[in-house]
Amino acid sequence: MFTAKDILDRFKAAQSHKEQWRDVYKEAYEYALPQRNLYDGDFEQDSAGQAKGARVFDSTGVNSTQRFANKIQSGLFPPGRKWCRLEAGNAIPPDMKPIVQAKLDEYTDKMFDVLRLTNFDLAMGEFLIDMAVGTGAMTVEAGDETTPIRFTAVPQFLVAIEEGINGNVDNVYRRMRMKGEAIQAQWPSAKIPDDLAQQIKAKPTENIELIEAAVYNYAERQNEYHLVVPKGAHQLIGRKMRKSPWVIGRFMKVAGEIYGRGPLTTAIYDIKTLNKVVEFLLKNASIGIAGVYTATDDGVMNPQNIKIVPGAIIPVARNGGPQGPSLQKLQSASDVNLTQLVINDLRMNIKKTLLDESLPPDNMSARSATEVVERMKELSQNLGSAFGRLTNETMIPIVTLVLSVMNEKGLIDLPLKVNGLEVKVVPISPLAQAQNIEEVGEFMKFAQISASLGPEGQMAVNAGAASAWVGDKLGIPQNLRRSQAEIEAKMQEAAAMAAQMEQQQPGSVAGLVKSVA
């Protein structure tokens, strides 16, 4: 078991490594997510209530980042809908798969019934906003009777991580502050030392800095949970745990790096340039509206006694020759049309990088199913490898933790091993379905071509296996589909009925087999 000193040393090392990312993440939050930016205030200085976004002159980056998170959520984790399915893995014998799948479909329904009672949709939205920068962090923990599972999206500013084997995030450290009087209520098992207890008694409402750590001890091969007070190196909690409650998702990752790089790290260059161009344009517009004037210093007019508000007066020797006007407006040399072209190009680049594009535009009339499929297909192509990382680092861990909590609460009959062999998590969200529908469409073309090739071509398609495959691709529940044994029994029943009718009325039962079952 790690000691408080071990945890603090590991946390300092992880935090020191994270500081290398401060400039990258700070700019992204400052220009695209100013309301979620904690880097300006820092942890030691409370940033609550601060006016943020002083350097943001264009809202394209802010709006497109929010639309990016909304588009990923609607494509992978649509609110109020099922976005994955538990399926029997290859370790399950083929003859047992229909029975196991029916039970897994029941667990899938129950899991989403539980999720609808939680704050999952809200937490996932905040999680994906942080992932637009590069790294998202969320905890999945048991709740109360009203909210069975509690999801908490933690700003990545407060989190430091360490990788283990195979690039997995094994250790997560979270900085937090809490009123001293609330520590015991939050963690009833916390062992508060005497000196800290006296401090809390003297100042119960004073915030105390805490380090929460979920780490894996390779020496003892166990997950551990620690709660440490850095000041004094007091360990309030140190215990084993079955599974870490953290879900750490990274949009994309460069080899050798721990933290992720999101689309904002690419779009930030155009966002900063756009902000500077708009800033200059606004300054030029203020000059065009208020004006800047020159005044001749001819002994008659005293510029010190003249006020033009808003505006400015610049004393000069003369305006346009020896007999020029005493007061003249200063002409602006900017080209508004050229500036607008630059702004439009920058906005298009930002929207393209953040996947904030629509085909066709969203403001058109009601869209058809084909258009929605094409839109999801385009989003899947633009995501590329990030789709697989979102599935493996976010979707599967969330499902695993949710099932673990449900098992602890007795909401499912038996623990499930979500390892891909016994039970696997298959995405059925709109983004995943777009790929499946494309595969089903290709198969239907093959079936149509085979049907046109005569009897031999028709025999090339295994109708029973094809029906089961299409049902799996479309995520159809097992209780709505007949098993292969039931299909064979129905076919035998239909053949027997056809033979009986043929004996009674020869030639009058053509097509009866098609009408049965």
Q: Compute the number of helices.
A: 16
Distance between the termini: 63 Å
Specify the structural class.
alpha+beta
SSE string: HHHEHHEEEEHHEEEEHEEEHHHEHHHHH
Low-confidence stretches: 508-517
Q: What does the model show?
A:
The protein has 517 residues and is an alpha+beta fold. It has a domain of 227 residues. It contains 16 helices and 13 strands. The strands form 4 sheets. A 5-stranded antiparallel sheet has the order 4-5-6-7-8. A 3-stranded antiparallel sheet has the order 3-2-9. Strands 11-10-12 form a 3-stranded mixed sheet. Strand 4 and strand 5 form a beta hairpin. Helix 2 packs across helix 8.
Task: Give the key terms.
16% strand; disordered C terminus; five-stranded antiparallel β-sheet; 16 helices; alpha+beta; three-stranded antiparallel β-sheet; flat
Describe the structure in brief.
This protein has 517 residues and is α+β, with helices and mostly antiparallel strands. It has helices at 4-18, 22-32, 60-76, 97-115, 120-133, 180-186, 194-202, 263-290, 336-353, 369-383, 385-408, 430-451, 455-459, 463-473, 484-504, 512-515; strands at 84-88, 135-142, 149-154, 159-163, 169-179, 207-217, 222-229, 234-241, 246-250, 292-296, 312-316, 327-329, 423-427. The chain has a 5-stranded antiparallel sheet with strand order 4-5-6-7-8. Strands 3-2-9 form a 3-stranded antiparallel sheet.
Topology diagram in text:
Elements: H1 4-18, H2 22-32, H3 60-76, E1 84-88, H4 97-115, H5 120-133, E2 135-142, E3 149-154, E4 159-163, E5 169-179, H6 180-186, H7 194-202, E6 207-217, E7 222-229, E8 234-241, E9 246-250, H8 263-290, E10 292-296, E11 312-316, E12 327-329, H9 336-353, H10 369-383, H11 385-408, E13 423-427, H12 430-451, H13 455-459, H14 463-473, H15 484-504, H16 512-515
Parallel strand pairs: 10-11
Antiparallel strand pairs: 1-13, 2-3, 2-9, 4-5, 5-6, 6-7, 7-8, 10-12
Helix pairs in contact: 2-8, 3-5, 8-9, 10-12
